[in-house]
């Protein structure tokens, strides 16, 4: 219940922000989105393929291959994608608030 109360006050405070304040917040969210995209790209192109190649190379040593396979856990990638989606929604909400204030 306290989360709902906190969420309501955060929304009320956010609604009372001026356009410049919302634009500053928007810039921060945009920067966070770009950083998250870069992290996802790095995981997809550099980290995961490297570990997958190591697993393949270590196939003769199954215990070591299993240990490396555990490191390839793609749940981190999925978590980053979920975080990115939330940030993109936050950016959309901020854009809507700014547009409403500019009317």
UniProtKB/TrEMBL annotation:
Q: Where is the composition biased (Polar residues)?
A: 1-17
Q: Which domain of life is it from?
A: Bacteria
Q: Where is this region: Disordered?
A: 1-27
Its protein name is: Uncharacterized protein
From which source organism is this entry? Answer: Paenibacillus riograndensis SBR5
């Amino acid at each position: 219940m306290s989360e709902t109360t906190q969420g309501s006050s955060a929304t009320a405070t956010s609604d009372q922000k001026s356009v410049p304040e919302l634009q500053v917040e928007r810039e921060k969210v945009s920067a966070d989105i770009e950083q998250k995209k870069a992290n996802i790209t790095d995981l997809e192109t550099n980290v995961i393929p490297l570990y997958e190649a190591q697993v393949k190379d270590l196939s003769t040593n199954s215990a070591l291959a299993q240990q490396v396979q555990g490191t390839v856990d793609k749940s981190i990638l999925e978590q980053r994608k979920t975080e990115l989606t939330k940030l993109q929604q936050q950016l959309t909400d901020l854009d809507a608030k700014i547009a409403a204030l500019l009317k």
